[in-house]
Hints:
- The protein is mostly helical and 314 residues long.
- Among the domains are: 143-238, Leucine-rich Repeat Variant, CATH 1.25.10; 242-314, Leucine-rich Repeat Variant.
- The chain has 20 helices and no strands.
- The chain starts with a helix and ends with a helix.
Amino acid sequence: xxxxxxxxxxxxxxxxxxxxxxxxxxxxxxxxxxxxxxxxxxxxxxxxxxxxxxxxxxxxxxxxxxxxxxxxxxxxxxxxxxxxxxxxxxxxxxxxxxxxxxxxxxxxxxxxxxxxxxxxxxxxxxxxxxxxxxxxxxxxxxxxxxxxxxxxxxxxxxxxxxxxxxxxxxxxxxxxxxxxxxxxxxxxxxxxxxxxxxxxxxxxxxxxxxxxxxxxxxxxxxxxxxxxxxxxxxxxxxxxxxxxxxxxxxxxxxxxxxxxxxxxxxxxxxxxxxxxxxxxxxxxxxxxxxxxxxxxxxxxxxxxxxxxxxxxxx
Length: 314
């Protein structure tokens, strides 16, 4: 090829590259938004859509960015996972985006062909990242079903001086859904801080602890001096199924200082019928004057049930 022709060929190639690089950001973001908002379009043009979303991610507003990460995580996992890790590590990214990326990683990692390098990097971040926020996000990403290998590290993070790291580690331990995590979680419920106890209570159902163990935990926390933890325990105790075996407990909770607990206890007694309410008929009449409107409504219904029961001489 003549030198002049070769020169023109190289020049034309460079010009094409410049054109590709100089696609206006606004146009690129608009195209990416179309793919993020329309999964069917994304799937019909997957190769182009994948490239477009990966390039345009920094240009998208938060909601579209999250949608793009979900699509990439679902259909282009090997591409999405490193991107999510990069976002998680970047302290300049908005926290909610980093938090979303951490959970997207937790969803994606189990499906990767070779997750070991990413898991190793997350372990380093969880232990050594400069900012506690990053350590907490790394712990979050390590919490996925079957990741029992992360339990020793997550148990170690429960001793972190940063409360957000301890809370993230406790939640991640629950999400491993491994019976091996149960001793650590029960220890948190015995000796952990309020934030960690709260997150473990909410997630105990998927922690590998059996139903009997969970019930004992909820009953114990109903004696806790913290009104919010008592409320969480009561709500979760009801999710266990049959509440008829806890009638006496529900009656005592009508005197609880937390109005929400009084309301739930009374509502559950109403669901069990007049026989459950008769021993506390005096308390039900008192609750007709409770300052809480929801409690008044429940008390009125309970009072009517008791009156109908007594009227029929049952």
